[in-house]
Amino acid sequence: MAGNLVEISDLHFAFENNQVLKGINLAIPRGKVVGILGVSGCGKTTLLRHIGGQLQPSRGQVKFDGQVVHKLSSTALYAIRRKMGMMFQVSGLFTDLSVFDNIAYPMREHTDLPEDVIHDLVLMKLHAVGLRGARDLRTGELSGGMERRVALARAIALDPMLIMYDEPFAGLDPISLNTIANLIRRLNDALGLTSIVVTYDVSESLKVADYVYFIHDGVVVAEGNAAEMADSSDPFVHQFVHARPDGPVAFQYPSRPYAEELEIPPEGSRLP
Predict the structure, then answer these.
(1) SS3 state of residue 227
(2) Average pLDDT across the chain, whole number
(3) How far is Cα 83 from Cα 155, in angstroms, rounded to an integer?
């Protein structure tokens, strides 16, 4: 089915007096990898939590597969969450379970599949991320990159329509980072998924994403394909893509004039 899997319209949300989202409008087409970029604390993860129905908007709406998420009953919300996979910045793996049992866990909890079928499915998921041989390891025996790959295998355990990646590249060495980026692209295309990659890592997201949104101060300030964003003249996008220390995101935290703080008299004034 063509069209958009996720549609977000005029989305507003505040934590107490802190207005985080101030009218977000964006669409996630089916079968595509879409990047959502912005500085830390700009509301990217808050946006994902609205898609998953963990938060209620103060205004606007999120549609998933044609359904308004915040208007769903608990039963209906549970049903659409079965169609979503999530890979967190921290893996969220169960430390007292083996790699195999971490992948098997959602299958055992949410399906009635027999154990022999679960066994074969788990091996398929682990093979897809290159870790079939690590199935008996405990999570404490994994490197950071391997742990992230196991988390990705678990995210696809129930064959979701949508996978949401929350800072998937954070804290990874260059080899692991490139491995995860390639897996996001390959799995999306091979499994017919739709992927949302929330990150502040510009280079990797522009490599794998079909389309990119930049969020700043609670709104979408720019959007386009990777090539357009790399060459954008938008001040915020230019600062973000080229890692400039100053610009729309100021280097100095708002404060009184420096001379005033130091009680330096204005130039030309006479000292008493």
Answers:
(1) helix
(2) 88
(3) 10
